[in-house]
Design goal:
about 40% helix; 11 helices; about 20% strand; 2 domains; 9-stranded mixed beta sheet; binds S-adenosylmethionine; alpha/beta; Rossmann fold
Length: about 270
């Protein structure tokens, strides 16, 4: 089956059969970023630290272009080195999921602790730098900061790092690790947040990614974060009030006399009902 057809099938249904943690908003953002990379001829390989059963990895793998390879890094059988129990990689299940939803022709597996590798290991295993690098392995500050250094060192020009769980209240170590990493001057900046992922790239490329992401989110806001301007993306459906508020016709009349009174009466009645 053609790669594009496999991708569509995986996005539509297949991902549901792969245990893991990827929100629909995150998947949309990754697909949009890959489209920018294709349009801008940003080349490179794919890598993920922390693949678990492959839920995000398979999506990244299906976004591969000709000649690109994909590196899966995980402790897999060595779960004693995962004291905080962030997921539980299983190489047999991962390989079976890959075979079912993609293929293994361009797959490179590195079974081991990410803290024992560096960016040079990644580029050696892949034969070049990465255009998409997901970090979702150990969730402590130390491991997060280390994995960010690995990813930045292995990043191709225009490449994007996808960091999981920065704003997940169950994993504060990731936020601390990201902040620690930015205590020193870096060659990357965050440019977007959404679907429990934080996206980073070299500053000259940030604007074109932001432009591509703005239309796909339900709600967006631009904020300052770690010295950069980031696009915050919300994929939750709008409430009825928010949907009505978006209509120009409603905004034009909502403060006119009788309507203003009717609105106030409506809100008072709602408050009274509780
Ligand atoms: C949250 S899961 C990954 C979820 C996955 N990205 C997905 O799409 O569902 C975290 C994974 O990181 C692995 N892991 C934890 N600590 C690690 C480390 N120090 N080095 C490599 N992998 C690690 C675990 O084995 C687990 O499979």
């Amino acid at each position: 089956m053609h790669r594009r057809a496999r991708l569509d099938r995986y996005l539509k249904r297949g991902h549901r059969y792969v245990h893991g943690w990827v929100l629909p908003g995150a998947a949309k953002m990754v697909v949009a970023i890959a489209a920018v990379q294709r349009a801008q001829a940003v080349g490179g390989h794919i890598a993920e630290i922390g693949v678990h059963r492959g839920r995000l990895f398979i999506l990244l793998y299906l976004l591969r272009r000709d000649g690109e390879r994909a590196l899966a890094i995980d402790l897999f059988s060595d779960q004693e080195r995962n004291p905080e129990h962030s997921g539980h990689g299983d190489l047999d299940i991962f390989r079976a999921n890959m075979a079912r939803h993609a293929d293994t022709d361009s797959l490179v597996v590195h079974e081991g602790d990410s803290t024992a590798i560096d960016g040079a290991t990644v580029t050696r295993l892949l034969g070049g730098a990465c255009r998409l690098f997901s970090i979702d392995g150990g969730h402590t500050p130390e491991i997060t900061a280390h994995d960010l250094a690995v990813a930045e060192a292995a990043l191709a020009p225009g490449g994007v790092i996808i960091l999981d769980d920065v704003f997940n209240e169950m994993w504060p170590g990731v936020s601390e690790g990201l902040n620690r990493y930015f205590h020193a001057r870096r060659g990357i900046v965050p440019f977007a947040i959404g679907g429990n992922k934080t996206f980073l790239c070299a500053p000259p490329f940030a604007a074109r990614y932001i432009d591509a992401l703005r239309p796909i989110a339900v709600k967006t806001a631009e904020r300052d974060f770690l010295g950069a301007r980031v696009l915050c993306c919300d994929f939750a459906p709008l409430s009825l009030a928010e949907r009505v508020g978006r209509y120009a016709a409603w905004r034009a009349v909502k403060d006119i006399g009788p309507l203003k009174i009717a609105r106030r009466a409506y809100h008072l009645a709602r408050a009274a009902i509780g």
